[in-house]
Amino acid sequence: MNMRKIIGFSLLLLLAACSGKEDTVKGNPDLLATNMLTTEIGGQTLFFLDNHDGTVSITYDQRNPMHMSKDNKFVLTDYVGEIEVPSSVTIDEKTYQVTGVTECAFKNNTTLTKVVLPETVTSIGLRAFDNCLLLEELSVPEGVSEIPDYCFNGCKALRQLDLPSHLDRIGEKAFKSCTKLEALEIPEGVTTIEEEMFKGFSAMTSLTLPSTVTQVGRQAFYGCNLLTELTIPDGVTVLPDSCLYGCNRLTELTLPGGLTSVGIHCFRGCSSLTELALPATLRQIGRQAFYGCSRLTAIEVPEGVTEIPDSAFAACGALVDVTLPETLTKLGEGAFASCRSLYDIVLPASVKEIGAKCFFSLDSNGNPNWNNLVVNVKSETPPTVTGSFVNQIRRRRVVIPRGTRDVYMQTDYWNEFFEAMETNY
């Protein structure tokens, strides 16, 4: 294989890597090279791709794309420090308007700190700023309607990112690992917060979502541990698994009025929340959804919910007031385990099954400890119990409907309570 074919084949592979699909590469290296335009601006050579309509897009040197950096990563540009892309360029006595940023235009650049784009830019390509490790600030022009997949992925120094006032879409993992980004306002028009969009944003203190959002992906806000307040727009009906996992500084959270479902681990570790209003539309709660919300003092589960699953409210150590719906039929294993401040619980007549260790009281080391929990059961038929659901049961009191003592005292686990008191519910 001659050198020209090797270079051409290598370029095809690089372009395939940018698009993520080898079979979507179009054209060939020779053709791309003939479309290249260059000019000197501010002491740097800028590379442009001719769009053949009087416009150009800033790009990398596609004639010699493989520049090896010190850490053996391929760097597609030689751009250094700060660059200001002009709104138009004149090359060989022909003037072109700059309207785009190509795929991978600045990908893997390790020396670029700032890029100023002109307002004439209307499109930004896939992975355009992917892994620009020193890029600190950038303003996306008003005419851009989409932030594509992986656009700012790995920009770990990015502190300020200004988005246009309207966007149609923000792509998958567009901001992944932008861990120094402190504030971001998502513009109107965006309907989906993609999976892991803000995962691990450990510096973010402010995040504003537009009213147009209707869908939120898994782990969308996972580990945003400096975020103190968040409002989820009313169009969102489902909060998926681990959505706000580990947002341990979150003190104010407003849920959408039409919310129907919260996923597994959805609010796990939101240890600064002291109150949370669950909307009346809620019907499904995932396992460990509120696990470790250790400052939450009260919760009212809305009518229509039929199950509190395993460990849903476990380790909510400050919880003192729990209201359960008359539609509830099942309490999962450890549903309220380690709720050390819970001294009174009323189980509706609809409850048919209680999981093992449902109300076990454990200390901070996970060892059984004593609290004065009184279990009030409205059902005239003892709910089925899959295992001991309170620790030190022989020292505890249960309150049951009047006239049901005999049937309760003949039923496993219920007959182990120290005292069964009858009352009129």
List keywords for this structure.
425 residues; six-stranded mixed beta sheet; four-stranded parallel beta sheet; elongated; disordered N terminus
Question: How would the blueprint of this fold be written?
Answer:
Elements: H1 3-19, H2 29-34, E1 36-41, E2 44-50, E3 55-59, E4 67-68, E5 74-75, E6 81-84, E7 88-91, E8 94-101, E9 112-116, E10 123-124, E11 137-139, E12 146-147, E13 160-162, E14 169-170, E15 183-185, E16 192-193, E17 206-208, E18 215-216, E19 229-231, E20 238-239, E21 252-254, E22 261-262, E23 284-285, E24 298-300, E25 307-308, E26 321-323, E27 330-331, E28 344-347, E29 353-354, E30 374-377, E31 384-385, E32 397-401, H3 405-409, E33 419-423
Parallel strand pairs: 3-8, 6-9, 8-10, 9-11, 11-13, 12-14, 15-17, 16-18, 19-21, 20-22, 22-23, 24-26, 25-27, 27-29, 28-30, 29-31, 30-32, 32-33
Antiparallel strand pairs: 1-2, 2-3, 4-5, 7-8
